[in-house]
Design brief:
By secondary structure, the protein is mostly helical. It is about 80% helix and about 0% strand. It is built from 12 helices and no strands. The relative contact order is 0.11.
Protein backbone atom coordinates (compact mmCIF):
# COMPACT_ATOMS: atom_id res chain seq x y z
CA UNK A 1 0.00 0.00 0.00
CA UNK A 2 2.96 2.33 -0.59
CA UNK A 3 1.01 4.62 -2.91
CA UNK A 4 -1.59 5.25 -0.25
CA UNK A 5 1.05 5.79 2.42
CA UNK A 6 2.96 8.31 0.37
CA UNK A 7 -0.23 10.18 -0.44
CA UNK A 8 -1.10 10.34 3.25
CA UNK A 9 2.39 11.59 4.10
CA UNK A 10 1.86 14.54 1.77
CA UNK A 11 -1.30 15.71 3.55
CA UNK A 12 0.31 18.22 5.94
CA UNK A 13 1.48 20.35 3.01
CA UNK A 14 -2.01 20.16 1.53
CA UNK A 15 -3.53 21.24 4.82
CA UNK A 16 -1.17 24.21 5.01
CA UNK A 17 -2.11 25.28 1.51
CA UNK A 18 -5.83 24.94 2.27
CA UNK A 19 -5.40 26.79 5.54
CA UNK A 20 -3.70 29.68 3.80
CA UNK A 21 -6.48 29.87 1.21
CA UNK A 22 -9.05 30.08 4.02
CA UNK A 23 -7.07 32.53 6.09
CA UNK A 24 -6.35 29.97 8.81
CA UNK A 25 -3.08 29.82 10.71
CA UNK A 26 -1.17 26.78 9.33
CA UNK A 27 0.11 26.07 12.86
CA UNK A 28 -3.46 25.69 14.05
CA UNK A 29 -4.23 23.31 11.20
CA UNK A 30 -1.14 21.23 11.95
CA UNK A 31 -2.05 21.06 15.62
CA UNK A 32 -5.58 19.95 14.80
CA UNK A 33 -4.25 17.29 12.41
CA UNK A 34 -1.80 15.99 15.02
CA UNK A 35 -4.60 15.90 17.55
CA UNK A 36 -6.90 13.92 15.27
CA UNK A 37 -4.13 11.49 14.34
CA UNK A 38 -3.25 10.92 18.00
CA UNK A 39 -6.88 10.45 18.99
CA UNK A 40 -7.50 7.98 16.17
CA UNK A 41 -4.45 5.97 17.18
CA UNK A 42 -5.41 5.81 20.85
CA UNK A 43 -9.10 5.18 20.27
CA UNK A 44 -8.23 2.22 18.05
CA UNK A 45 -5.65 0.83 20.45
CA UNK A 46 -7.50 1.39 23.73
CA UNK A 47 -11.11 2.05 22.80
CA UNK A 48 -13.11 5.20 23.44
CA UNK A 49 -13.66 4.59 27.15
CA UNK A 50 -10.05 3.60 27.72
CA UNK A 51 -8.61 6.77 26.22
CA UNK A 52 -8.25 10.08 28.04
CA UNK A 53 -7.85 13.58 26.70
CA UNK A 54 -4.57 13.81 28.63
CA UNK A 55 -3.17 10.80 26.72
CA UNK A 56 -4.28 12.31 23.42
CA UNK A 57 -2.55 15.58 24.26
CA UNK A 58 0.70 13.80 25.15
CA UNK A 59 0.76 11.69 21.98
CA UNK A 60 -0.05 14.73 19.85
CA UNK A 61 2.71 16.72 21.56
CA UNK A 62 0.24 19.41 22.60
CA UNK A 63 -0.71 21.07 25.85
CA UNK A 64 -4.02 19.89 27.30
CA UNK A 65 -5.28 23.46 27.09
CA UNK A 66 -4.61 23.44 23.33
CA UNK A 67 -6.62 20.25 22.96
CA UNK A 68 -9.67 21.84 24.58
CA UNK A 69 -9.25 24.93 22.41
CA UNK A 70 -9.95 22.67 19.43
CA UNK A 71 -12.54 20.27 20.89
CA UNK A 72 -14.83 20.73 23.86
CA UNK A 73 -14.61 17.10 24.96
CA UNK A 74 -13.63 13.58 23.94
CA UNK A 75 -16.99 12.89 22.32
CA UNK A 76 -16.61 15.91 20.04
CA UNK A 77 -13.17 14.68 19.02
CA UNK A 78 -14.42 11.17 18.30
CA UNK A 79 -17.34 12.54 16.29
CA UNK A 80 -14.99 14.67 14.17
CA UNK A 81 -12.87 11.66 13.33
CA UNK A 82 -15.93 9.79 12.09
CA UNK A 83 -17.24 12.85 10.22
CA UNK A 84 -13.95 13.21 8.35
CA UNK A 85 -14.20 9.67 7.00
CA UNK A 86 -17.87 10.21 6.14
CA UNK A 87 -16.92 13.31 4.13
CA UNK A 88 -14.33 11.32 2.20
CA UNK A 89 -16.89 8.59 1.43
CA UNK A 90 -19.45 11.12 0.24
CA UNK A 91 -16.91 12.66 -2.14
CA UNK A 92 -16.05 9.20 -3.40
CA UNK A 93 -19.73 8.35 -3.95
CA UNK A 94 -20.13 11.58 -5.92
CA UNK A 95 -17.24 10.52 -8.13
CA UNK A 96 -18.88 7.16 -8.75
CA UNK A 97 -22.08 8.86 -9.88
CA UNK A 98 -20.13 10.97 -12.36
CA UNK A 99 -18.18 7.96 -13.61
CA UNK A 100 -21.34 5.94 -14.23
CA UNK A 101 -23.15 8.89 -15.81
CA UNK A 102 -20.83 9.05 -18.83
CA UNK A 103 -21.70 7.32 -22.08
CA UNK A 104 -20.83 3.64 -21.61
CA UNK A 105 -21.14 1.17 -24.46
CA UNK A 106 -21.02 -2.61 -24.71
CA UNK A 107 -17.41 -2.22 -25.82
CA UNK A 108 -16.36 -0.11 -22.82
CA UNK A 109 -18.55 -1.74 -20.16
CA UNK A 110 -16.00 -4.28 -18.90
CA UNK A 111 -13.16 -1.74 -18.76
CA UNK A 112 -15.42 0.75 -16.95
CA UNK A 113 -16.52 -1.78 -14.35
CA UNK A 114 -12.95 -3.04 -13.93
CA UNK A 115 -11.77 0.48 -13.13
CA UNK A 116 -14.78 1.06 -10.90
CA UNK A 117 -14.10 -2.15 -8.97
CA UNK A 118 -10.41 -1.34 -8.64
CA UNK A 119 -11.05 2.14 -7.27
CA UNK A 120 -13.79 0.95 -4.94
CA UNK A 121 -11.69 -1.84 -3.46
CA UNK A 122 -8.68 0.41 -2.90
CA UNK A 123 -10.87 3.08 -1.30
CA UNK A 124 -12.64 0.64 1.02
CA UNK A 125 -9.36 -0.96 2.09
CA UNK A 126 -7.51 2.25 2.90
CA UNK A 127 -5.82 1.69 6.28
CA UNK A 128 -7.54 4.70 7.87
CA UNK A 129 -10.97 3.56 6.64
CA UNK A 130 -10.44 0.05 7.97
CA UNK A 131 -9.23 1.47 11.29
CA UNK A 132 -12.31 3.67 11.58
CA UNK A 133 -14.66 0.77 10.87
CA UNK A 134 -12.95 -1.35 13.50
CA UNK A 135 -13.27 1.49 15.96
CA UNK A 136 -16.95 2.10 15.22
CA UNK A 137 -17.78 -1.58 15.60
CA UNK A 138 -16.21 -1.53 19.04
CA UNK A 139 -18.07 1.62 20.07
CA UNK A 140 -21.43 1.00 18.34
CA UNK A 141 -23.25 0.45 21.65
CA UNK A 142 -21.94 3.75 23.02
CA UNK A 143 -22.60 5.68 19.80
CA UNK A 144 -25.43 3.89 17.94
CA UNK A 145 -26.60 7.05 16.16
CA UNK A 146 -23.08 7.86 14.95
CA UNK A 147 -22.57 4.28 13.73
CA UNK A 148 -25.86 4.46 11.81
CA UNK A 149 -24.94 7.84 10.35
CA UNK A 150 -21.63 6.41 9.19
CA UNK A 151 -23.35 3.52 7.42
CA UNK A 152 -26.05 5.71 5.86
CA UNK A 153 -23.66 8.40 4.60
CA UNK A 154 -20.55 6.33 3.82
CA UNK A 155 -21.16 2.78 2.51
CA UNK A 156 -24.83 3.64 2.12
CA UNK A 157 -24.13 6.56 -0.26
CA UNK A 158 -21.67 4.44 -2.24
CA UNK A 159 -24.30 1.72 -2.66
CA UNK A 160 -26.86 4.33 -3.76
CA UNK A 161 -24.43 5.64 -6.37
CA UNK A 162 -23.75 2.14 -7.67
CA UNK A 163 -27.45 1.28 -7.76
CA UNK A 164 -28.26 4.46 -9.68
CA UNK A 165 -25.54 3.71 -12.21
CA UNK A 166 -26.60 0.09 -12.64
CA UNK A 167 -30.18 1.20 -13.27
CA UNK A 168 -28.97 3.40 -16.12
CA UNK A 169 -26.87 0.57 -17.53
CA UNK A 170 -29.93 -1.66 -17.37
CA UNK A 171 -31.98 0.94 -19.24
CA UNK A 172 -29.30 0.91 -21.94
CA UNK A 173 -29.55 -2.90 -21.99
CA UNK A 174 -25.95 -3.31 -20.92
CA UNK A 175 -26.89 -5.13 -17.70
CA UNK A 176 -29.80 -7.34 -16.61
CA UNK A 177 -30.71 -5.98 -13.18
CA UNK A 178 -34.03 -6.47 -11.41
CA UNK A 179 -33.02 -5.10 -8.01
CA UNK A 180 -30.37 -2.41 -8.47
CA UNK A 181 -29.68 -1.99 -4.76
CA UNK A 182 -29.10 -5.72 -4.31
CA UNK A 183 -26.84 -5.76 -7.37
CA UNK A 184 -24.89 -2.83 -5.93
CA UNK A 185 -24.38 -4.61 -2.62
CA UNK A 186 -23.25 -7.76 -4.41
CA UNK A 187 -20.82 -5.78 -6.59
CA UNK A 188 -19.29 -4.11 -3.54
CA UNK A 189 -18.86 -7.40 -1.70
CA UNK A 190 -17.47 -9.20 -4.73
CA UNK A 191 -14.73 -6.61 -5.25
CA UNK A 192 -13.78 -6.01 -1.60
CA UNK A 193 -15.89 -7.96 0.89
CA UNK A 194 -13.58 -10.82 1.86
CA UNK A 195 -10.39 -8.74 2.28
CA UNK A 196 -12.40 -6.12 4.18
CA UNK A 197 -13.71 -8.75 6.60
CA UNK A 198 -10.18 -10.03 7.09
CA UNK A 199 -8.82 -6.53 7.60
CA UNK A 200 -11.45 -5.68 10.20
CA UNK A 201 -11.28 -8.96 12.12
CA UNK A 202 -7.60 -9.86 11.75
CA UNK A 203 -6.08 -6.44 11.10
CA UNK A 204 -4.38 -7.61 7.89
CA UNK A 205 -4.72 -5.61 4.67
CA UNK A 206 -3.61 -7.36 1.45
CA UNK A 207 -1.11 -5.81 -0.91
CA UNK A 208 -2.43 -3.38 -3.50
CA UNK A 209 -1.68 -5.95 -6.20
CA UNK A 210 -3.80 -8.59 -4.45
CA UNK A 211 -6.63 -6.12 -3.79
CA UNK A 212 -6.80 -5.17 -7.47
CA UNK A 213 -6.59 -8.80 -8.65
CA UNK A 214 -9.45 -9.76 -6.33
CA UNK A 215 -11.52 -6.79 -7.48
CA UNK A 216 -11.13 -7.71 -11.16
CA UNK A 217 -12.16 -11.30 -10.43
CA UNK A 218 -15.18 -9.90 -8.60
CA UNK A 219 -16.18 -7.83 -11.62
CA UNK A 220 -15.96 -10.91 -13.83
CA UNK A 221 -18.24 -12.81 -11.45
CA UNK A 222 -20.65 -9.87 -11.35
CA UNK A 223 -20.87 -9.77 -15.15
CA UNK A 224 -21.45 -13.52 -15.27
CA UNK A 225 -24.59 -12.91 -13.23
CA UNK A 226 -25.76 -9.56 -14.57
CA UNK A 227 -24.18 -9.15 -18.01
CA UNK A 228 -26.58 -9.29 -20.94
CA UNK A 229 -24.51 -11.92 -22.72
CA UNK A 230 -24.94 -14.29 -19.77
CA UNK A 231 -28.67 -14.38 -20.36
Amino acid sequence: MSAITSRDERRPRGRDHLAESRGEDPRVVRSRAALLDAARTLFLAKGYAGTTMEEIAVLAGLAKRTVYNHFADKEALFTRIVQNVIAYAERFAGGLREELAVEITATTLRATLDELGRRLALAILRPEVVALRRLLIGEAREFPALAKEYFDRAPGRVLEALASGFERLCERRLLRVEDARRAAAQFAYLVAGEPLDRAILAGTIPSEEDIVAGALDGVETFLTRYGVESG
